[in-house]
Design brief:
Elements: E1 17-22, H1 26-37, E2 42-48, H2 52-62, E3 66-68, H3 71-76, E4 82-85, H4 92-101, E5 105-108, H5 116-129, E6 133-135, H6 143-153, E7 160-170, H7 184-199, E8 206-214, E9 229-236, E10 241-250, E11 255-262, E12 266-269, E13 273-281, E14 284-289, H8 293-296, H9 298-314, H10 322-341, E15 345-346, H11 347-350
Helix pairs in contact: 4-5, 5-10, 7-10
Length: about 350
């Protein structure tokens, strides 16, 4: 009688990952939907949010078996391999540290921290635990930005000389400025551009920052310190000069673009279109522009979450990690001081 062959043991790298989402707001819901329905080999196992109703509604819609108002319950569940942290920015560090100490891999939305001391705490916790720590700088994963970065890596434009990155959130601006944390335009909006510029000048480090900012959309909010419009100049140690700009009210839609001019050529990326359609009609020429980042950047969100899952499975480093986030944060903090003091600020002044 023949004996059936014993099947080879399953490769741990092929097993399904169980991930939890902490934060059921707009971005958390977007990430949870991608994990549940589009990232290969991943199952959404839990949703946590301080609003139990929000957690329960999102979990029910996506088939997650656990919903809780306690983020630490998500972190502490033994079946969870990793967590996606999309809670408010000022809670990120404590959650990253708690997750790493529990042995959970972490994907955390930007900013990873709002102080360099907290950034160092998060990095140390992940390094001690040997867990993946990936930060949600999604532009690195947008097809155009990724292709531009690859072209720069191949030396196709030579040495970067002049660089530009911009973020214009869709308008009209309707938020309550009193509910927007101080310095959001640098710490939560332009921090994407700071990371982008560092990625697109990969062999250099930022050395000096000069920022100007104002409340041009809501001048009435200026006395309370709300800023809605900013331009930042960054000098790098290879001589490159970069500008980053942001506005909270682009009436034509969500607008994310960048450009790098180098010694051998130029590369551009992003144009705000939600499709590549151009309509030529009696009223002129019209294109479709995106009204939401989750529409325009959907391929990037999916790619970064897939990359996180791959890093967890293979034990490879995160493609954008804690030290990348720390560099972007140092630029943001220098920009804050530059506005406060009305002068250029050396990076060493905030990161001595």
């Amino acid at each position: 009688m023949s004996v059936p062959a014993t099947p080879p043991p399953a490769d741990p790298a092929d097993r399904e990952l169980l991930l939890g989402v902490i934060g059921a707001g707009r971005i958390g819901a977007n990430h949870a939907e991608l994990l549940a329905r589009h990232v290969p080999g991943v199952r959404l196992a839990a949703v946590g949010d301080v609003s139990l109703k929000a957690a329960e509604e999102l979990a029910a819609r996506l088939g997650a078996p656990v919903a809780t108002a306690d983020p630490h319950e998500v972190i502490g569940r033994p079946e969870i391999d990793g967590v996606i942290i999309t809670a408010p920015a000022r809670e990120h560090t404590a959650l990253v540290v708690a997750a790493a100490e529990a042995g959970r891999h972490v994907f955390v939305e930007k900013p990873m921290a709002v102080t360099l001391a907290d950034a160092d705490r998060a990095i140390r916790a992940a390094e001690r635990a040997g867990t993946v720590l990936q930060v949600g700088f999604n532009r690195r994963f947008s097809p155009g930005f990724a292709a531009a970065g690859a072209a720069i890596d191949r030396g196709e434009i030579g040495t970067p000389h002049l660089m530009r990155s911009l973020t214009r959130d869709p308008g009209p601006f309707t938020a309550d400025p009193a509910r927007i944390p101080p310095w959001t335009i640098f710490l939560e909006t332009l921090i994407h551009d700071f990371d982008t510029l560092c990625r697109l000048n990969p062999t250099a480090a930022p050395v000096r920052v000069h920022a100007v900012a104002d409340a041009l959309i809501r001048p009435d909010a200026r006395p309370s310190g709300h800023l809605d419009t900013a331009v930042v100049t960054i000098s790098f140690d290879n001589g490159a000069i970069a500008t980053a700009e942001a506005s909270f009210s682009a009436l034509y839609g969500y607008d994310v673009r960048a450009e790098v001019f180098g010694s051998r050529g130029m590369v551009t990326m992003g144009d705000g279109r939600s499709t590549d359609m151009t309509l030529h009609g009696a009223d002129g020429i019209r294109i479709d522009t995106s009204r939401r980042d989750t529409d325009l950047m959907r391929p990037a969100y999916l790619a970064e979450l897939t990359a996180f899952a791959d890093a967890v499975r293979t034990g490879s480093p995160a493609p954008v990690g804690g030290r990348d986030a720390r560099t972007a944060l140092s630029i943001a903090l220098a920009a804050v001081r530059s506005v406060q003091e009305g002068r250029p600020v050396e990076i060493t002044e905030v990161d001595g």
